[in-house]
Amino acid sequence: MFPDDTIAAIATPIGQGGIAIVRLSGPDALKIADRIFRPRNAARMPSKVLTYSVIYGLLIDPANCSPVDEVIVSVMHGPHSYTREDILEINGHGGMVIIRRILEIVLAEGARLAEPGEFTKRAFLNGRISLTQAEAVMDLITAKTEESRRIAADQLRGSLAEKLSATRNRLLDLCALAEVCIDFPEDEVELKTSEQMGVELEAVAQELEKLSRTYNEARFFREGLATAIVGRPNVGKSSLLNALLARDRAIVTDRPGTTRDLIEEYLNISGLPVRIIDTAGIRNSDETIEQEGIRRSLRALENADCILAVFDGSMPLDAEDHSLIRKISSGNVIIVVNKADLDEQISFGNLLPVNSPLVRVSTLNGKGIDDLKSLIVTTNLKEWKEEREGVVITNLRQKQAIDQSVMALGRAAQILCRNQPLEILALELRDALEHVGSLTGDVTHEAILDRIFSEFCIGK
User: Fold this and answer.
1) pLDDT at 257
2) Which of 105, 201, 223, 401 has the smallest CB count inside 10 Å?
């Protein structure tokens, strides 16, 4: 990262469209614009206009002074911009040749091609947004449902950052109390301060633990609920996928083993993004390609957040069904009995996993499909109605940092109870403080920043 250079990138998807945008940010953004842009009103050069101005004119190739495109230029002066630097956005016609040519000219005039997420990274490094807000930017871009968007937008407004900042201030107070005990070791002061610290330690730890628990369900809105459809061949797995999606996504035939590879699609169920995975039928097979498909099915079963175990209700259980039941005994399973339009011949006895809900469906006429969708939501969002009223965390980095802070606070509480040296207590409190600070960016490590912003698209 070179904070004194000017970066540029195409900020809109590559392809044909009405408008495409090249974005610049940095100290030379307006100087570059003055060299390549000719406004219709000569007095309105980019470096001369007020911030938030929009100017119409021609973009020129300085090499030969020939016009490249009619454009509209948006000017935002720092620090009142996304990056707190001077920002220029060139709005040209949305053709691949045109917009790439504009970018080439900008780079030839001294700008550098931006790295993935570098505009947002500069916004963070310049104090425009917190680290949790920076992560929310990407979550907002990739939101798959309206509820996903709402959560990301809430974090982008700073709700999580505000909560963590308040927690960090409480930890700072605890650190100050520890220093009081160390610097003024009189028994009366130490006893009083230790009592205060014990109460506050427990309160902060409980608050962080509550926030950590929201991850278990909130992450589904960021990542999607991985839901694997499993079963022996010809029970109707691909038909179930098509019925859930309400379109023909998977090939359906009477021949066993038609599905050879995993088929993934996203489905919006009451705001919950569900990543549906149709798998190959699980059975014993001597065919090499089918064996690989079955191995992938078993991996999907192991990694799924939710399992839809499909059985043919018009037939008694066979050996392959019994084998599947054993494989799903410890997972989060919904039992789906298909072919409810036919006479039911299946009987499970006491073979099914305890507390696994059962729903009867017909992929032929759609019976029970809405009931299945409701079950997917209610069995995986058991606490969501309560938790979504407050702040939640949606990614693993956040959860791990919070959990590490809670563990440090737990160790600090034990030190207090055992009357161990207060210098050790202070170290544990600083450890808890550092982990919370790493969430908001008050404490930063270059490797963490690189990992976070590498997930962004170029231009954002």
Assistant:
1) 47
2) 223
User: Residue 6 in 3-state DSSP?
Assistant: coil
Q: What are phi and psi of 305, to 5 degrees?
A: -75, -30
What's the token pair of residue 87?
Answer: 């920002």
Over residues 377-435, the pLDDT tens digits come to 999 988 776 455 578 899 899 999 999 999 999 998 888 888 777 788 888 989 999 99
The contacts of residue 288 (CB under 8 Å, 6+ apart) are none
Residue type, 278: D
131: tokens are: 């680290």
- pLDDT at position 75 is 96
The vertex-224 CA angle with 353 and 281, nearest 5°, equals: 50
**Residues in the chain, total:** 460
Closest alpha carbon to 436 in 138, 152, 130, 155? 130
CB 337 within 8 A of CB 360: yes
Binning pLDDT at 50, 70 and 90, where does residue 299 land?
confident
pLDDT at residue 10 in the model: 94
Question: Which of 78-92, 348-362, 419-433 is the most confident on average?
Answer: 78-92
What would the two tokens of residue 331 be?
Answer: 């997972």
Q: Which residues of 69-105 are buried (b: 16+ CB within 10 A; e: fewer)?
A: bebebbbbbbeebbbbbbbbbbbbbbeeebbebbbeb
Residue among 36, 40, 21 at smallest CA distance from 82: 21
Which two tokens mark 350? 């006491």
Task: Name every residue whose Cβ is closer than 8 Å to that of residue 113 and which is 6 or more positions away in sequence.
Answer: 7, 8, 9, 103, 107, 458
- In a 10 Å sphere around its CB, with 0-12 CB exposed, 13-18 middle and 19+ buried, how is residue 257 labelled? middle
Token readout for 337 is 């009995």
